[in-house]
Each structure stands twice: as structure tokens, then as C-alpha cells.
Design brief:
Elements: E1 16-21, H1 30-39, H2 41-47, E2 58-62, E3 70-75, H3 83-106, E4 114-115, H4 130-133, H5 143-162
Parallel strand pairs: 1-3, 1-4
Antiparallel strand pairs: 2-3
Length: 163
């Protein structure tokens, strides 16, 4: 079963959560920063020993102070729309699912709960998408609301130009 949840991934009592990681598996901003902050210093110590990755790579770590059992760190591309970015992003999701399946088998679980944040979305602000999804620290807009606001702004600009 697949569900969508809007909230703080660090508070989810899932088996595994996925971190939007950087290639050095070091603390960062956004989801990555929140995960490192709430997991405690042990996560940073553990991840500092991991080999660097490239877009599409994943690594797993204990969850330390988080309620989940493990964290999969997925290195997403700095997304520009190139085919190589698309393949790396697909690999992030696929490799995270494959690693979670391996975890499930190694721990002899019948099922597993897995939570993903959005991966590789940080670059979208500079691509102009932030008008729809919201700037960091602000509430994201509903796509229909954003479209209605855009239409109203365009109508107002057209009326002003005609006047």
C-alpha cells in the first residue's frame, strides 16, 4: 500500500526513512539537516566513515535517536532536466527500495514501512518552480491555488496594459 503523508519525516515510526543526502553523507540543509539534527551526533560520526557517493547511490545507517529503525541515505542529482539526471533520480528511488528489501530480508521481517521525502527538489527554486511549491520556510501552495493566483495576476496585468 502506498500513502502520501505531509509532515515531519523525522517523527515517523516507520521501519526505514530515506534521507535526501549529499555525496559526502554529511549534515546538510532541509530534510538532511533535520534528520542529522534529530538523530544525534552518532549519525554524523557513522556517516563520516561512509565512502562518498554519486547521484543514484544509497547507503544505510542505524537511526540512532530517531523512532525509525534505519535511515537510507540517497544521493540525488542536482536536477537540471538532463536524461542523466532523470536516470540518477530513478536510481535513487529504485536503489532505496532495493536496499530496504535487503534490510527486510536480513531482519526476517514479513513487511516493512518505508518513508521517502521528495528527492532532488532543492534546485527547483532557481528554476522558477518555487512560485508553485513555495519557498523554503513557507507553506507550500496547493497547485490549484497557485494556478488560480497566476491566472488572476495575468488577468490584472492584461487589464492594466489595456487601460
Amino acid at each position: 500500500m502506498i500513502s502520501t503523508i505531509k509532515g515531519d519525516i523525522t517523527g515517523l515510526d516507520f521501519d526505514i526513512i530515506v534521507n535526501a543526502a549529499n555525496p559526502h553523507f554529511a549534515p546538510g540543509g532541509g530534510v538532511c539537516g533535520a534528520i542529522f539534527s534529530k538523530a544525534g551526533k552518532e549519525l554524523q560520526t557513522f556517516c563520516s566513515k561512509l565512502p562518498s557517493g554519486k547521484p543514484g547511490d544509497v547507503r544505510i545507517s542505524p537511526a540512532f535517536d530517531l523512532p525509525c529503525k534505519a535511515i537510507i541515505h540517497a544521493v540525488g542529482p542536482v536536477y537540471s532536466g538532463k536524461e542523466s539526471d532523470k536516470e540518477a533520480l530513478r536510481s535513487c528511488y529504485w536503489n532505496a527500495v532495493a536496499l530496504s528489501y535487503q534490510y527486510m530480508r536480513e531482519h526476517e521481517l514479513d513487511h516493512l514501512t518505508l518513508a521517502f521525502p521528495c528527492l532532488s527538489t532543492g534546485i527547483y527554486e532557481s528554476m522558477g518552480i518555487a512560485k508553485i511549491i513555495g519557498k523554503p520556510g513557507k507553506q507550500a501552495k496547493d497547485p490549484e491555488q497557485a494556478a488560480a493566483e497566476k491566472a488572476a495576476a495575468e488577468k490584472a496585468a492584461a487589464e492594466k496594459a489595456a487601460a
